[in-house]
């Protein structure tokens, strides 16, 4: 982050990124999409990760996934247990958010690099 705050470690290579991405894509219809005008920022992603993480379950990892659509990107941000399993709510819905965005700020684009999956760890 550019304001002097320490950044969280970011890992693009967990045990099975393709399995996790496939699972998330299969559950995307469980998250109601929210439209966010403009570009999503790295700061917004980290803020959500810190503020919305379900700490009571011992969760210390999050994953972000994006897909290009015709006129926007679908961006999913969810949480994982250490085992790599997705954190689910008591009603069996995935714990996270789905955004429809125009794009990414430069810092978030750099974090994703050439990948469509980004893992966050604390």
Strand and helix map with partners:
Elements lengths: L9 E2 L5 H11 L5 E8 L1 H11 L8 E8 L4 E8 L15 E9 L1 H7 L4 E5 L1
Parallel strand pairs: 2-5
Antiparallel strand pairs: 1-6, 3-4, 3-6, 4-5
What does this structure look like?
It is globular, with a radius of gyration of 14 Å. It is 24% helix and 33% strand. 21% of the residues are buried. The protein has helices spanning 17-27, 42-52, 106-112, and strands spanning 10-11, 33-40, 61-68, 73-80, 96-104, 117-121. It is an alpha+beta fold and 122 residues long. The protein has one domain (27-121). The model is unreliable at 1-15 (pLDDT under 50). The chain is built from three helices and six strands; from the N terminus they run E-H-E-H-E-E-E-H-E. A hairpin with a 4-residue loop joins strand 3 (61-68) and strand 4.
């Amino acid at each position: 982050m550019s304001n002097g705050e320490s950044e969280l470690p970011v890992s693009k290579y967990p045990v099975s990124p393709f399995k996790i991405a496939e699972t998330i894509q299969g559950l995307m219809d469980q998250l109601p999409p929210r439209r966010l005008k403009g570009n999503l920022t790295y700061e917004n992603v980290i803020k959500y990760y810190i503020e919305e993480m379900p700490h009571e379950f011992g969760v210390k990892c999050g994953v972000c996934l994006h897909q290009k659509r015709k006129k926007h990107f679908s961006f999913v941000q969810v949480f994982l247990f250490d085992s790599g399993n997705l954190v689910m709510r008591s009603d069996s819905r995935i714990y996270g958010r789905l955004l429809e965005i125009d794009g990414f700020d430069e810092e978030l684009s750099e974090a994703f690099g050439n990948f469509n999956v980004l893992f966050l760890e604390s």
